[in-house]
Design a protein that fits this description.
InterPro entries: AMP-bd_C (IPR025110), AMP-bd_C_sf (IPR045851), AMP-binding_CS (IPR020845), AMP-dep_synth/lig_dom (IPR000873), ANL_N_sf (IPR042099). It is built from 18 helices and 29 strands. By secondary structure, it is α/β, with parallel strands linked by helices. The model has no long low-confidence stretch (mean pLDDT about 95).
């Protein structure tokens, strides 16, 4: 079941931050982890102070914080001192606009230097930062701006034109749109980010910040209903900092590259906050995935620690298979690289071994989710790897496997839950609340937050097995959400968009397994009376989905089906659509409409 275990060198050139798993776990406390940070001079804790200002006033002031590789391959750098000034200016801009504590500032940007200015300046101002994925279409963007009560949006002219301008009126609370780069003058109701930032003073006194003040809002998807806004507080930086040391093995001298998009939680926690809190140099690539470009960046930028995703690794594997001359990676000097980790979707054992053979380093899988705010389960630099396993819980993280009931979710009896004691038995992964980056709520949705807990555990919605030695193995999701290319997609959001097309009566959306993306979104659609299911209509619906939802969320496949299976209460049974699609047993159909 485990395949080939990968053992580690006894004495690597850079001694790992965690050497003895059991000893570190038993000695660890979160209050000790807090001592690794500075705190605000007058007391309190602010993420941006930890990530920037404390370094800017230390001997790291002139160290490069960001090494930005532009699309044309030109490289520019920003020191910690300069980042402190830029973020102070942006905090000042917000203050001058009357945007204050708790007000929500959204970003809809790629990986550009201004993203860092906007995120950290917002945190300095004690406003709340909410990142959006730039591959979202107008529907998901509008919905999140509305649900998150956006006051400010920082974006580019092109993204604003394509995704926001026409919908602006339906987000009346959005008072300020700041345009990065050229174009603001041609767009009514916007202002130039660059002009405002360069006119602002380059010092800013961070107001008192309590560790419990809200810092970040991350939208995530559930099976039903609107996207959920997971609320995170400034104290989360304690967990970002500690877990980046243990699970990513970050050392002060590292050059670190995280390929995650800033619109998702990994791009924020481990693309921005954690590495800067460690005072390392962060490589920021504005370009898109391209095998040659990525090897070049790893080599030329002398990246030492690389955090990426299974889909990206699978794309690299296609471009540079294990059996072969490895010409592409060999044309670049990857000798600086010393640690590779991945997150977001199951990492197939072949990818771990491919890393060892082609990059010269195995890939360390780790697991977490938007709600947990930081890595919970990981393979560590000093420990053996069991390819296919997500690893073991981090110090300070208490995990378990809970028994499931007939509905597939955790079995709750009399308010209590049952832990699965035997090894290798499937159940739902649960975590004991109490780590600093645990989400504090879903925005405006107490009920869904409460439903995420039972018997004193936070229920992750993931199915896992734990082996006899305590290693966790991912099995699947307990609900219908879809992971495609590492992005979590709510089927309800896709179904709702499709149902706005005049030809569509109803839709049921599932993830169809795909060798590279993990899953692709497939929609089953029933048509309104009298509408013919033609290839033209199929193309039209695919295009409609892309226009409304954007390429990352839209269905890649449409199937017409006038008899979508439904529960007696009338809901489309995605589980059955999926089972039929995959040729799996259909399981318990007692709630299917039309059964006795
Ligand atoms: P998100 O909240 O968008 O970060 O998605 C979190 C979900 O991604 C988890 O609940 C898992 O279903 C999946 N996930 C994250 N990391 C892993 C991993 N290492 N292996 C398998 N699935 C993962």
């Amino acid at each position: 079941m485990h395949g080939e275990t990968i053992h580690k060198e006894a004495a690597p050139a850079v001694p790992p931050r965690l050497t003895d798993y059991d000893r570190t776990r038993s000695a660890f406390t979160w209050s000790q982890a807090r001592a690794g940070l500075s705190g605000l001079p007058g007391g309190g804790l602010n993420m941006a102070h930890e990530a920037v200002d404390r370094h800017a006033s230390s001997d790291l002031a002139d160290k490069v914080a960001l090494r930005c590789v532009a699309r044309d391959d030109s490289v520019s750098t920003v020191t910690y001192a300069e980042l402190a000034r830029r973020t102070a200016r942006f905090a000042g801009v917000l203050r001058s606009l009357g945007v204050g504590r708790g007000d929500r500032v959204f970003t809809l940007l790629g990986r550009c230097p201004e993203l860092y200015t906007a995120v950290l300046g917002t945190l300095k101002n004690t406003s709340v930062l909410c990142p959006l994925f730039s591959a979202f279409g107008p529907d998901p963007v509008e919905q999140r701006l509305r649900l998150g009560d956006a006051r400010v949006l920082v974006t580019t002219a092109a993204l604003y034109r394509r995704k926001v301008a026409e919908r602006r009126a339906s987000v009346p609370g959005l008072k300020h749109v700041l345009i990065v780069g050229p174009g603001a003058e041609e767009l009514p109701g916007t202002a130039s980010f660059d002009d405002l930032v360069s006119a602002a003073p380059d010092t800013f006194a961070v107001p008192p910040t309590s560790p419990e003040d809200t810092a970040l809002l991350h939208f995530t998807s559930g099976t039903t209903g609107a996207p959920k806004g997971a609320v995170h507080v400034h104290e989360a930086v304690v967990a970002h900092h500690a877990t980046a040391a243990y699970a990513l093995d970050l050392h002060p001298e590292d050059v670190y590259w995280c390929t995650a998009d800033p619109g998702w939680v990994t791009g924020m926690s481990y693309g921005i906050i954690a590495p800067l809190a460690h005072g390392v140099t962060v490589v920021v690539d504005e370009g898109d995935y391209d095998a040659r470009r990525w090897y070049r960046i790893l080599g030329e930028q002398r990246v030492t620690v690389w955090y990426t995703a299974p889909t990206a690794l699978r794309m690299l594997m296609r471009a540079t298979p294990r059996q072969g001359p490895y010409d592409l990676p060999r044309s670049y000097d990857l000798s600086a690289l010393r640690f590779v980790a991945s997150v977001g979707e199951p990492l197939n054992p072949e990818a771990v071994v491919w890393g060892r053979d082609v990059l010269g380093l195995p890939v360390h899988d780790n697991w977490w989710q938007t709600e947990t705010g930081c890595i919970m389960i990981a393979n560590f630099a000093a420990c053996e790897i069991r390819p296919g396993s997500m690893g073991r819980p981090l110090p300070g993280v208490d995990a378990t496997v809970l028994k499931r009931g007939e509905d597939g979710r955790v079995l709750v009896t009399g308010g209590g839950v049952t832990e699965v004691e035997s090894p290798d038995v499937e159940g739902e992964l649960a975590l004991r609340p109490g780590w600093p980056s645990m989400f504090r709520g879903y925005l405006h949705d107490r009920e869904r937050y409460d439903a995420a807990f039972a018997g004193g555990w936070y229920l992750t919605g993931d199915l896992v097995r734990r082996d006899a030695d305590g290693w966790y193995w991912f099995v699947g999701r307990a609900d219908d959400v879809i992971k495609s290319a590492g992005h979590l997609i709510g089927p309800f959001e896709v179904e709702s968009a499709l149902m706005e097309h005049p030809a569509v009566a109803e839709a049921g959306v599932i993830g169809r397994p795909d060798p590279v993306a993990g899953n692709v979104v497939k929609a089953f659609v029933s048509l309104r009376h009298g509408v013919e299911p033609t290839p033209d209509l199929e193309r039209e619906l695919l295009a409609f989905g892309r226009r409304r939802l954007g390429p990352a969320v839209a269905p890649r496949e449409i199937a017409f089906d006038q008899n979508l299976p439904r529960t007696r209460s009338g809901k489309v049974m995605r589980r059955l659509l999926r089972a039929r699609e995959l040729g799996l047993p259909t399981g318990d159909l007692s709630t299917l409409e039309g059964t006795a």
